[in-house]
Specification:
alpha/beta; flat
């Protein structure tokens, strides 16, 4: 299962957010740096309103949503790439995740210590990204030294790898993350094998005060982050309030709705963050729906029908014959599989079919 790491400076709300997103009290959240040392790991279900509609059509009492893993990682400080703070541990833990949710403090509170003394979200982002890029630059230079010997011997594979490394090194030297290097699809695939820290897809979580959630779009800190990440990093920024999310953990759905209404907020930012992270990981969902259960299955975007079938069981992929499929929107519009079939919207697809997000599938196989 793919993992998203929650990263950021100390005391920006990472552990509070982790507890809220996993609906636990697993991670210690305290007003001092490095209260998280070893990473906490939690499974998070992906909110998806389509499940309720499919449940209504299938007339089942069992609904199983998609899920991803989130990891709460210790706070990073300036100099982490040189071992400052928990630098080496932090960088190792970041290397083990597939994407990052970078939490950025967007609230003023004299009672909550900021490691740099003042709240400046763009500076905080640059501190973290600089440390990631410095660590990557060191890794790239060492790898180039290693493959250089093979290049001199005329090794074509090593020469191709060195070309990719050179492009990434130039990008890092220019102060840009490895993810922004101008690489072909083949070169990008090669770059993945380097496991570079700044090559991981990232989403920024703007953590605002409880009282600022309703007016977050005009929060100057949020506005600065959105402008910065869109122009410099080509990334997405979402607004959350870790404190609100923490308060919602112990409330029933009705109580949570009433609480949010009192704050002037239509919905929690947590669902948007989870869904954005899910897509950031390159994931999408297909469904199976029957009297036994309605279930969301996680696949990678671009997966074919046999690959999608293999998520259920390896025998489904090995003995794949065909996939009976209907698009979610078509099924909802028709109201039943029978009606979708009558209208010609229920199809038979073969091994080359690329599954679309929201497809409702039934696999035929033989082993």
């Amino acid at each position: 299962m793919l993992r998203a790491g929650i990263v950021g400076l100390p005391n920006v709300g990472k552990s509070t957010l982790f507890n809220a997103i996993t609906r636990t009290r697993k991670a210690e959240a305290a007003n001092y740096p490095f209260c998280t040392i070893d990473p906490n790991i939690g499974m998070v279900t992906v909110p998806d309103g389509r499940l309720a509609e499919l449940q209504r059509i299938a007339k089942t009492g069992v609904v199983i949503p998609a899920a991803i893993e989130f990891v709460d990682i210790a706070g990073l400080v300036k100099g982490a790439s040189q071992g400052e703070g928990l630098g080496n541990k932090f960088l190792t833990h970041v290397r083990e995740v597939d994407a990052m949710v970078q939490v950025v403090r967007c609230f003023e509170d004299a009672d909550v210590h900021h490691v740099s003394g003042t709240v400046d979200p763009v500076r905080d982002i640059e501190v973290i990204n600089t440390e990631l890029m410095l660590a990557d630059l060191d890794s790239v230079k060492k790898r180039r030294d290693k493959v250089g010997k093979d290049v001199k011997r005329g090794d074509k594979a090593a020469a191709a790898e060195d070309v990719v490394l050179a492009k990434i090194e130039a990008t890092l030297d220019a102060g840009k993350p490895a993810l922004s290097a101008d690489l072909s699809p083949e070169e990008r695939e090669t770059a993945r094998s380097f496991f570079l820290l700044s090559d991981k897809p990232t989403i920024f979580a703007c953590n605002v005060a409880e009282s600022d959630m309703a007016t977050a779009d005009t929060n100057p800190h949020v506005m600065k982050i959105r402008d910065y990440v869109s122009t410099h990093l080509a990334c997405e920024a979402v607004v959350i309030s870790a404190q609100i999310e923490s308060d919602l953990v112990d409330l029933s759905p009705a109580e949570a709705a009433e609480f949010l209404e009192h704050l002037g907020v239509k919905e929690s930012g947590m669902g948007a963050l989870i869904r954005s992270t899910y897509h950031l990981l390159g994931l999408q969902t297909y469904f199976t729906a029957g009297e036994k259960e309605v279930r969301a299955w996680t696949i990678h975007a671009g997966d074919t029908a046999p690959k999608a079938a293999g998520v259920i069981h390896s025998d489904f992929e090995r003995g794949f014959i065909k996939a009976e499929t209907v698009a979610y929107d078509d099924l909802i519009a028709c109201g039943s599989v029978a009606a979708a079939r009558e209208r010609g919207l229920y199809r038979m697809e073969g091994k080359d079919y690329v599954v679309s997000d929201g497809d409702v599938l039934l696999f035929k196989f033989n082993v």
